[in-house]
């Protein structure tokens, strides 16, 4: 049977979590419709052995690809080359899908023909499985079960990686390639294909379960501080991508601007969290002025009040912002 969904599982040293992830795809009602490709990114623990067990038990559904370590982007690039399903979804090896929802989702993909299918997701506390937050994919209840035309309708909310399922042929035929050996490339994955996307279908149901609170996660602010050069590198790639856009319908162009602006806002968050350190104000001011010069549209698309205040005060409020950030977080 033709696979309707390719699930790519980037896996690096996730032996403590991978069983939960892979078991969520093993329901008999869905196995004929999906393929699960575990891309082992040079793990040094038992990740490959766990994946291999699923491949032996369900050889028509689970597949393992071993490779040298290249980072999250390299696993997505590998998945794009290997995927055979109609649609493509990334599920990190320390996350999982709601099994009951996956069965309904796969049936929906058999009949839907949109370029992107957006679905709801939830963040879940590591260790307790407490649901921390619901993330609806639709901006209004009326959008669910409908397909919208992005050449005519402007989406205000950027579709997150955990919500995104995309037609595989768009990724492959357009040569979508994500930066390797770098953190924070999820932003590239969700935005690089968008110039070629014309339709989005909104699926109601909390499918993706996003684990939060695991030690060492790249989105932990301390990790972001250490890796801020990599975060800025990804932002540079996104700005270069934006500057190369031609003949993109205005609603899609504005969508991409907002997506990159969210990365800018995260970069500001890093600076604000470090705002009491010497030299950070100058570093922030230089960064923001260069951004305004390189891409005024993206610079203007940032919406956070804290950024507006910093700009209005020539960034002198940065130390106060750092104190408030520390108290809030």
CATH second-level architecture of the largest domain: Alpha-Beta Complex
**Main CATH class of the largest domain:** Alpha Beta
The secondary-structure class comes to alpha/beta
The major pleated sheet works out as:
10 strands, mixed
Rounded mean pLDDT is 95
The CATH superfamily of the largest domain turns out to be Spore Coat Polysaccharide Biosynthesis Protein SpsA, Chain A
> What general form does the structure show?
globular
How many strands?
10
Count the DSSP helices.
Answer: 14
Cα-atom Rg, whole angstroms? 20 Å
Provide structural commentary.
By secondary structure, the chain is of the alpha/beta class. The chain has 2 domains: 208 residues, Spore Coat Polysaccharide Biosynthesis Protein SpsA, Chain A (Alpha-Beta Complex); 108 residues. The chain is built from 14 helices and 10 strands. Strands 1, 2, 3, 4, 5, 6, 7, 8, 9 and 10 form a 10-stranded mixed sheet that branches. Helix 3 links the parallel strand 2 and strand 3. The radius of gyration is 20 Å and the shape is globular. It starts with a strand and ends with a helix.
Please sum up the structure shown.
The protein has 329 residues and is α/β, with parallel strands linked by helices. The chain has two domains: 5-212, Spore Coat Polysaccharide Biosynthesis Protein SpsA, Chain A (Alpha-Beta Complex), CATH 3.90.550; 221-328.
């Amino acid at each position: 049977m033709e696979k309707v969904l390719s699930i790519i599982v980037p896996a690096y040293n996730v032996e403590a979590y991978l069983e939960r992830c892979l078991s969520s795809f093993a329901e008999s009602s869905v196995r004929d419709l999906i393929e699960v490709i575990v891309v082992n990114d040079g793990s040094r623990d038992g990740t490959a052995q766990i994946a291999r067990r699923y491949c032996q038990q369900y050889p028509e559904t689970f597949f393992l690809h071993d490779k040298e370590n290249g980072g999250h982007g390299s696993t997505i690039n590998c998945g794009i080359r290997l995927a055979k399903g109609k649609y493509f979804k990334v599920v990190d090896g320390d996350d999982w899908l709601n099994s009951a929802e996956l069965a309904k989702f796969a049936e929906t993909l058999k009949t839907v023909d949109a370029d992107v299918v957006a679905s709801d997701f939830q963040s879940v506390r590591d260790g307790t499985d407490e649901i921390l937050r619901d993330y609806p994919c639709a901006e209004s209840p009326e959008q669910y079960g409908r397909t919208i035309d992005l050449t005519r309708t402007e989406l205000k909310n950027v579709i997150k990686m955990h919500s995104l399922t995309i037609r595989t042929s768009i990724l492959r035929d357009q040569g979508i390639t994500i930066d390797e050996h770098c953190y924070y490339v999820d932003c590239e994955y969700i935005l690089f294909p968008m110039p070629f996307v014309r339709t989005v279908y909104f699926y109601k149901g909390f499918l993706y379960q996003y684990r939060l609170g695991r030690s060492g996660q790249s989105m932990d602010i301390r990790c972001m501080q250490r890796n801020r050069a990599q975060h800025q590198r990804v932002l540079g790639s996104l700005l270069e991508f934006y500057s190369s856009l031609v003949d993109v319908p205005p609603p899609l162009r504005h969508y991409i601007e907002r997506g990159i602006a969210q990365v800018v806002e995260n970069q500001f968050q890093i600076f604000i969290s470090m705002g009491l350190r010497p030299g950070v104000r100058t570093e922030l001011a230089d960064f923001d002025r260069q951004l305004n010069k390189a891409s005024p549209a993206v610079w203007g698309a940032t919406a956070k009040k804290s950024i507006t205040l910093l700009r209005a005060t020539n960034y002198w409020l940065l130390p106060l912002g750092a104190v408030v950030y520390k108290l809030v977080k």
